[in-house]
Fold this protein.
Amino acid sequence: MSDPRRDRLSVGGLSIAPSTAPERWEVRAQSDGAAVEAHWGEWVRLARRILDTDALSRDLEARGDAWDQGHAAGADREAAADAVNPYR
């Protein structure tokens, strides 16, 4: 039985598979496209950086939305009683 940790992983148009060098993995954007090779740990660090960047982007977007809601709550005197300012 083959080692399942050495199987190709595919998501959308990307795939990561073992390289000819046993310690390296290659990523391809298309099945016939050029491969980029790196050690498994480097791919894991890249994935972690992508997830961290995505989390930061989502956090900044949420803060901007909260600021917009707070500004709108303070700017509209008629709806000020009903509006919720997330910063108060």
